[in-house]
Specification:
The complex is a heterodimer.
Chain A: H1 2-22, H2 25-33, E1 40-44, E2 47-50, E3 55-58, H3 61-64, H4 73-85, H5 96-108, E4 115-119, H6 122-137, E5 141-145, H7 154-159, E6 175-178, H8 183-189, E7 194-199, E8 202-203, E9 209-210, H9 213-226, E10 229-233, H10 247-250, E11 257-260, E12 272-276, H11 278-286, H12 299-315, H13 317-338, E13 343-349, E14 352-357, H14 360-373, E15 375-376, E16 378-379, E17 386-389, H15 397-416
Parallel strand pairs in A: 3-15, 5-6, 5-7, 7-10, 10-11
Antiparallel strand pairs in A: 1-2, 2-3, 4-12, 8-9, 11-12, 13-14, 14-17, 16-17
Helix pairs in contact in A: 1-2, 4-12, 5-12, 6-11, 13-15, 14-15
Chain B: H1 7-34, E1 41-45, E2 48-51, E3 57-60, H2 63-66, H3 75-79, H4 97-109, E4 114-120, H5 123-138, E5 142-146, H6 155-159, H7 164-167, E6 177-180, H8 185-191, E7 196-201, E8 204-205, E9 211-212, H9 215-228, E10 231-235, H10 250-253, E11 259-262, E12 274-279, H11 282-290, H12 303-318, H13 321-342, E13 347-353, E14 356-361, H14 365-377, E15 379-380, E16 383-384, E17 387-393, H15 401-429, H16 432-439, H17 441-456
Parallel strand pairs in B: 3-15, 5-6, 5-7, 7-10, 10-11
Antiparallel strand pairs in B: 1-2, 2-3, 4-12, 8-9, 11-12, 13-14, 14-17, 16-17
Classes of the chains: A alpha/beta, B alpha/beta.
Chain lengths: 417, 457
């Protein structure tokens, strides 16, 4: 037994040294300090399995990618079969896979969002959305809100409320942020020069802050009046996460462009997308191939995404997310009141939660101690005092109980320390 | 060689075009149709595919801009997906054996002390990462790129692009970029200063029209960068992994860039992936150690991507595929040179290295016409977006001698087929006003679509 443990520790240390030599020492320090010091072997259902076989409830889910559950055998089968029948294809070419996914996605989205462009990483999808807005309107100004997080590429980074943004000199110009939830500020900012207003409805990386329904309705109206494009980032909130197909369903409005994350393939394939109106598509008709993405409409990925959407329709995981989210919120809320010195509050929608700790040190410690309690999670990128919980949407009541107990155990351990 | 297409498939094809037009872009179909590129790829394997609209067998001379270095649907690479441990993409911030193994393998085959890796999801993602690394590490504000350069379409990668066409509708982009002519060391000397964070270039310009960076030019850039503390970034997204006859193009000159961007062929055409490899030097290590989250890629460096990319590297190394690219490239090049000698009124120049070859025609309008004629012969070849008079030939680098003989014959026939059109167009092209009309892409699309309809009728 002891020999086996020593062997595992020795192997782990050796792999960490390898990782430090090929990635960076800073990365190793980061995963250790953020409670992610493990080697992931894979996942199934609601759990992540590490290289020693230990299971953790996955409350990170690669920032909300595995909405249909970890390691879906049905999607993996589609991936393997598709790769034996087709490949990426030439990116400039028309393909059955691209056309079929575009149609399938259109049938899944609200009727107004019937057109699509496929991309790879989330940042690229958001950048494409901003470019479409600028190109279509012929305007340059982009308005966003404070507290948002959209990704690491040019436009996305420029709109994200994070310290990394300032490391690279001046970013994309003509991007300004107004206070989230402030209709008057939005009204003042939106002018005839505004190409787009960009936001997440629930700011996952910022304490899961969201506004009242009226705010989003007002933004919709103000954008229409100003002739600006309303862009909603659904990369974390989409495909059922908030208890609805999309968070804009929850808040009862329809954007002009929705940015979709890897949940479009159930986390089986690196694909993201933007879904947009037929009116906006006229820009891509007028300027075909103006925005290219080599892996964007990958034919294998398109097949996986079609199957994932079929699963979303069949399983309606948003319904479970709403129900389990309600149960989990109740339990977490109860727990938080027992640790007033450490927990400042719980916020969230569906199965997207944030526990706001009293400071960043405690949030970091929470993530480290979480492993010992049997779950993994990550801090918010905007609000470093927040810890985001975003389990798979297929969790059961037992999972809810286990997550709540694990959270409480973590807080207990911290309290003792 | 054409296969008869069944009525059922024809109906399905019609439906595909209709849906594509409705949900993605109607005019993209028209644009592609002008160059006879409106094919539907099926039965993909080796160096080509079957077009489901015509039943014709095609040689893939575009390879999705150089993605299929292991050939189309390489069985050994696909087999990597059978790994019983695969469950899904994995969590992006969490390490795994496969991620570490892939990064080690990549560092081992990368030139010089390019030993450090950042995992990314795509070419544009790699470029974003590389630019940020250089800007962040040096604390400087300016970046020098090349006229006609192509680096991608995301915010910063587009800013680095050297073709206004792709940028003008989306301005303003990131400030601080300066563009100099490719290959001009004097112009570069004038453009750089101690405020320059990086020089970024494709060592062989792809989309810009296949311009090959000479050894002297690349060495000159290296010296300039060393002198002024500038980061040298080689975008090897198209040239990397054997395409030019070496595993990386930089090996010809012996120049080790500070940062190298990779994507496309690292995926084996099976599963997207990308990477940035950077030198093991204090300035870069210091920045990444201080800011390890400076570029997290959610879909990049996924568990499955790393398994597939490791297999791609194994395949390329085990089969020394770049040597084949060099040999086949020489043979292809010689054949194209002979063709140019026979057709001086059509072909101006042949350029390239290994199996990254470009044919420059005398006029811009010839690119579209040749694409059309090549398609009729069963060659899928795209003209360069940044230089439509240049056609790229980037066949899968697993091609063998008979493939080269076959494509050369097809190109020869296509050139012969051009003569009919050119008998009419070349006299017109001597007059500037007509030449401008002929070179106008919208005119070409309209005319070619009309001609294709006549042909189909």
């Amino acid at each position: 037994m002891n020999t086996s443990i020593n062997k595992n520790i020795g192997e782990w240390e050796s792999l960490l040294r390898d990782a430090a030599s090929v990635f960076s020492k800073g990365l190793i320090e980061r995963i250790k300090s953020e409670g992610l010091a493990m080697l992931e072997k894979g996942g199934h259902g609601s759990v992540l399995v590490d290289s020693t076989g230990k299971e953790y409830i996955d409350c990170f889910t690669s920032a909300g990618s595995f909405n249909l559950g970890r390691g879906r055998a049905d999607l993996l089968r589609v991936l393997r079969e598709s790769a034996r029948q087709t490949d990426q294809g030439n990116f400039i070419a028309i393909s059955e896979e691209k056309a079929m996914l575009a149609q399938r996605l259109a049938s899944f989205m609200p009727p107004a969002l019937e057109c699509a462009l496929f991309t790879v990483v989330r940042g690229e999808a958001m950048d494409a959305a901003c470019k479409l807005a600028r190109g279509f309107t012929g305007r340059s100004e982009i308005i966003t809100v404070d507290g948002g997080w959209y990704g690491h590429t040019g436009f996305s980074l420029g709109m994200s409320d994070c310290c990394e943004r300032d490391l690279f000199g001046q970013g994309i110009p003509k991007i300004t942020a107004v206070p989230f939830g402030d209709v008057d500020a939005a009204r003042r900012a939106l002018t005839k020069n505004t190409a787009a207003f960009v936001l997440e409805t629930v700011q996952a990386e910022n304490g899961c802050r969201y506004a009242e329904e009226e705010y989003y309705a007002s933004l919709r109206r103000l954008c229409d009046e100003a002739g600006a494009i309303l862009i909603v980032d659904e990369s974390q909130t989409g495909f059922g996460r908030t208890g609805y197909r999309f968070s804009f369903d929850c808040f009862k409005f329809i954007p002009d462009i929705a940015v979709l994350g890897e949940a479009i393939t159930g986390g089986m394939f690196p694909m993201t997308a933007i879904a947009f109106t037929g009116r906006l598509k006229s820009f891509f008709d007028e300027h075909p191939l103006i925005h290219l993405c080599t892996f964007g409409g990958h034919d294998v990925g398109c097949r996986v995404a079609v199957s994932a959407i079929d699963l979303y329709v069949a399983e309606r995981p948003w319904e479970n997310a709403r129900r389990m989210g309600g149960l989990l919120f109740e339990r977490l809320d109860g727990i938080s009141t027992r640790y007033p010195g450490m927990v400042c509050g719980i916020e969230g929608k569906g199965l997207l939660f944030s526990i706001t700790m009293k400071d960043e040190v405690n949030a970091r410690r929470f993530c480290v101690e979480a492993g010992g309690s049997g779950f993994v999670c990550a801090r918010g990128r905007v609000n470093g005092s927040s810890v985001v919980l975003r389990p798979v949407l297929t969790i059961s009541e037992d999972d809810v109980r286990m997550i709540a107990e694990a959270v409480e155990n973590t807080l207990k351990t911290m309290n003792k320390g | 060689m054409k296969k008869k297409i069944s009525a059922g498939i024809l109906r399905l094809n019609k439906q595909v075009f209709k849906l594509f037009g409705k949900h993605i872009s109607k005019n993209q179909i028209r644009f592609l149709a002008a160059g006879h590129l409106d094919i539907l790829e099926s039965e993909r394997s080796g160096i080509g595919f079957e077009d489901r609209t015509s039943g014709r067998q095609f040689i893939d001379a575009f390879s999705s801009a150089g993605c299929f270095n292991v050939g189309r649907m390489n069985g050994e690479v696909i087999k990597a997906l059978d790994d019983p441990d695969i469950s899904d993409m994995g969590n992006y911030m969490v390490l795994s054996r496969n991620k570490i193994e892939f990064a080690k393998k990549l560092a081992a085959v990368s030139p010089g002390d390019l030993n450090r890796v950042v995992l990314t999801g795509s070419g544009a993602d790699s470029i974003e990462c590389a630019l940020k690394l250089a800007l962040g590490a040096t604390g400087r504000k300016s970046i020098v790129s090349m006229v006609n350069a192509y680096h991608g379409h995301s915010g910063f990668s587009l800013s680095a692009g050297g073709k206004d066409y792709y940028k003008q509708l989306f301005l303003p982009l990131k400030p601080g970029f300066i563009y100099v002519p490719f290959g001009d060391l004097d112009a570069m000397r004038k453009a750089v200063s101690r405020d320059t964070a990086a020089i970024i270039l494709e060592p062989v310009q792809g989309e810009g029209g296949i311009h090959v960076g000479s050894d002297d030019y690349l060495r000159g850039l290296r010296s300039l960068c060393d002198e002024l503390g500038i980061m040298l970034i080689f975008d090897e997204i198209q040239t990397g992994f054997g395409r030019t006859g070496r595993l990386f193009y930089s090996e010809y000159s012996g120049v080790v860039p500070d940062i190298m961007t990779l994507a496309k062929s690292i995926s084996g055409g099976v599963y997207p992936n990308g990477a940035v490899v950077y030198r093991d030097i204090d300035i870069l290590n210091g920045f990444v150690d201080a800011h390890p989250g400076f570029h997290d890629s959610f879909g990049g460096g996924s568990e499955i991507g790393c398994i597939v990319s490791s297999k791609v590297i194994d395949y390329l190394v085990d089969n020394v595929v770049w040597e084949n690219a060099g040999r086949m490239g020489d043979k292809f090049r010689k054949g194209l040179d002979r063709l140019m000698e026979k057709n001086p009124k059509i072909i101006r120049e042949i350029r390239g290295k290994g199996l990254m070859l470009g044919v420059e025609y005398l006029h811009e309008f010839m690119g579209v016409l040749m694409a059309d004629n090549l398609a009729k012969e069963g060659v899928f070849a795209a003209y360069s977006g940044n230089a439509p008079q240049v056609m790229r030939f980037m066949i899968p680098i697993t091609a063998v001698e008979r493939d080269i003989d076959s494509i050369l014959l097809k190109i020869e026939h296509a050139v012969k087929g051009m003569r009919f059109y050119l008998a009419l167009m070349l006299p017109l092209a001597r007059v500037m006003i007509f030449r401008n009309i002929l070179n106008n892409v919208n005119v070409l699309i309209a005319v070619n679509n009309f001609l294709r309809k006549l042909h189909l009728a």
